[in-house]
Amino acid sequence: MRLDEILQQAGRYKPRKRLGRGEGSGLGKTSGRGHKGYGARAGAKRTFGYEGGQTPMISRFPKRGFSNAMFRTEYQIVNIEDLNGFEDGTRVDPAALVAAGLVDSPTAPVKILARGEVTRKLTVVAAKFSAKAAEKIAQAGGSVEQGS
């Protein structure tokens, strides 16, 4: 055993508070909960934003505007340089991209971007293509298809 191994462990774990073990412990009687009230009861847990009973700040201020954030479409991004791992003449669809480990979900939409060069003749199926990516795939002798 080395000194640095002992020092790494020192102070890593705090001893637990032993509540309700007599007045001499400093945590007897009410066990650190004070007298009466909500916090003294079992299962008492304040919700986020609770301000002691006064109207919370989130309720005091008016709500304005509208956000389309929840309607945004999140695309899985694949660059054309990553498509060089496929054989010539392959149909590259979302299922093939999942099998190759390039995207996570076969159902989420895929967008193909133009970083790098493609050297294979591929049929690429995706929800969206950047104009440059579609052009580079076509130049390599492949084709693009709009799909899911």
Quick summary of this structure?
By secondary structure, the protein is α/β, with parallel strands linked by helices. It has 4 helices and 6 strands, in the order ααββαβββαβ. The radius of gyration is 30 Å and the shape is elongated.
Topology:
Blueprint: H1 3-9, H2 57-60, E1 76-79, E2 91-92, H3 94-99, E3 110-113, E4 123-126, E5 128-129, H4 131-139, E6 143-146
Parallel strand pairs: 1-3, 2-4, 3-5, 4-6
Characterization of this structure:
The protein has 148 residues and is of the alpha/beta class. It contains 4 helices and 6 strands. The chain has helices at 3-9, 57-60, 94-99, 131-139, and strands at 76-79, 91-92, 110-113, 123-126, 128-129, 143-146. The strands form 2 sheets. The chain has a 3-stranded parallel β-sheet with strand order 1-3-5. Strands 2-4-6 form a 3-stranded parallel β-sheet.
